[in-house]
Design a protein that fits this description.
The chain is an all-alpha fold. It has 2 domains: 10-154, no CATH class; 186-475, UbiA prenyltransferase (Tetracycline Repressor, domain 2, Orthogonal Bundle), CATH 1.10.357. Helix content is 74%, strand content 0%. The chain has helices spanning 10-39, 61-90, 95-120, 130-154, 186-200, 203-221, 228-252, 254-257, 275-294, 298-319, 326-346, 351-374, 376-382, 387-391, 393-417, 422-445, 448-475. Helix 1 (10-39) packs antiparallel against helix 2 (61-90) and helix 1 runs parallel beside helix 15. The radius of gyration is 25 Å and the shape is flat.
């Protein structure tokens, strides 16, 4: 089915997209402030509506300030929601975008009423969680409207690769392993080999996944002191597990790597390291990883082994070459370090650890789809059914926005489940806004540079959020 064309001038499209983006961020900020208000019981310090009277107890001044911040934010965001709905009604937008924004505006009125009842009568007067649920529905509606509007305004149906170029036509572009020359000096070759083993471990993944595990440990320990041995064993075992997973991935994809320009120089693709040596190296890393995890507890070791097997076998062999949902389901591999960090401290799997893992799981497609866009032709040559290859760039850009919204919603769940405070909330809003804005720009620019910009914004978002979790959980 052909995509509906949109004749609006580019400047008008950008203005409406900017308004939708700001409105979505405004609603998200309100959700974060509302969660903080609920967790600090600030509503108890303000039982009038729409304004707050000063409390009798001076100790509740902080809670009063939080309650005031919630209401002022609600007023400003309400104006944004109303403006966006009116712009959709009067402007040249699609019927489904207009409809969902009108519904979102009406729900916002209901949301205000629910908030007024909660403030004046008490939370027991309404269904538990209704206020938050309505907020999440409104946020989702606005992000859906943004994704749909951008799809119509900037997308096309002809950007999927139906038949990738035959591999034999690419042989002149990518030199084979036999065409490459290696150093003749033994010392130089030994140095090159050492670097090759290091590259097989995928060191660029280590810092982020170790940060995920560290955040899991911080959530579990809170302000309590973490034993140095637990920290070192967890992070050390995690580094070795990542190295083992990366090595097995290099072994299993060595033939395909030779066909793709971004991977053609990998150690096994150029026959720098024999396959049997790489396998021995991977198994050695696996054993060493499990040995370190077992110094903590068996659950951490079991989760570490599951992470290696999932990435090496389930993702690399089963998901990546066979389904367009490989990135979505494969996000479980990146989420497991959060559970490992939590289990290392508690010897169990708890809700905060699961919530952090869920955030990583939902973030992964929003992050990796940008890379898939940048390397779309390369993945097609390798025969991988990545989203841009199978369904096209327009659908991929739309799904990036979907998963950003899901990621931000999961960040709210983490706020409710844990005792994370304002530092975490401010970080999520700031870097979530940067990530969302980069994804919106990607719709209009549609270049490799824009895809990498969004990719780096996703990295910055997760890195900043994990650091905020560490500091907020352990220092406050």
């Amino acid at each position: 089915m052909a995509t509906e064309s949109f004749p609006r001038p580019i400047s008008t499209r950008r203005r409406f997209s900017a308004l939708l983006s700001v409105t979505a961020l405004g609603v998200y900020l309100l959700l974060i402030v509302g969660a903080t208000t609920s967790l600090t019981n600030a509503t108890a310090s303000c039982s009038t509506w729409p304004t707050c009277h000063a409390p009798v107890d001076p100790l509740s001044q902080t809670e009063l300030a939080i309650a005031w911040a919630h209401r002022l934010t609600a007023a400003v965001v309400g104006l944004l929601v109303a403006t966006t709905a009116i712009a959709a009604i009067l402007g040249d937008v699609s019927s489904r975008v207009r409809s969902i924004l009108v519904v979102g505006g009406l729900l916002y009125v209901v949301q205000v009423g629910v908030g007024a009842v909660t403030a004046t009568v008490g939370p027991a007067a309404i269904v538990p969680g209704l206020h938050l649920a309505l907020g999440l529905v409104i946020f989702s509606a606005i992000v859906l409207a943004l994704a749909w509007d951008l799809e119509l305004a900037t997308g096309s149906d002809d950007d999927a690769i139906e038949s990738p170029e035959p591999l034999e036509e690419l042989e002149e572009e990518i030199p084979t392993a036999t065409e490459r020359t290696l150093p003749s000096s033994r010392l130089a070759r030994a140095r090159l080999t050492a670097i090759a083993y290091f590259r097989m471990t995928k060191p660029r993944l280590m810092w982020l996944l170790c940060l995920v595990a560290a955040a899991g440990m911080a959530l579990a320990a809170g302000s309590d002191d973490l034993g140095l041995s637990t920290i070192l064993a967890t992070l050390g075992g995690g580094v070795l597990a990542i190295g083992a997973s990366g090595t097995f991935n290099h072994v299993l994809e060595r033939d395909v790597d030779q066909q793709m320009s971004r991977t053609a120089e990998r150690p096994l693709a150029v026959d720098l390291i024999p396959v049997r040596n790489a396998l021995a190296f991977g198994f050695a890393l696996t054993v060493a990883s499990l040995a370190l995890f077992l110094t903590i507890n068996r659950l951490a070791a079991a989760l570490g082994l599951a992470a290696i097997l999932f990435y090496s076998v389930v993702y690399t062999l089963m998901l990546k070459p066979n389904t367009v949902q490989n990135t979505v389901i494969g996000g479980a591999a990146g989420a497991l370090p959060a559970l490992i960090g939590w289990a290392a401290v508690t010897n169990e799997i708890g809700m905060p650890g699961l919530a952090l893992a869920g955030l990583i799981f939902l973030w992964t497609p929003a992050h990796f789809y940008n890379l898939a866009l940048a390397y779309k032709d390369d993945y097609a040559r390798g025969g991988f059914p990545m989203m841009p290859v199978v369904r096209g760039e327009t659908v991929t850009r739309k799904h990036i926005l979907y998963y950003i919204a899901a990621t931000l919603a999961s960040a709210i769940a983490l706020t409710w489940i844990t005792d994370l405070g304002m530092l975490y909330a401010a970080t999520v809003v700031l870097f979530g806004g940067i990530f969302l804005w980069a994804a919106v720009r990607l719709h209009f620019e549609q270049t490799e540079a824009a895809a990498f910009r969004s990719f780096h914004a996703s990295n910055a978002f997760l890195g900043a959020v994990l650091v905020a979790v560490l500091v907020d959980a352990m220092a406050f």
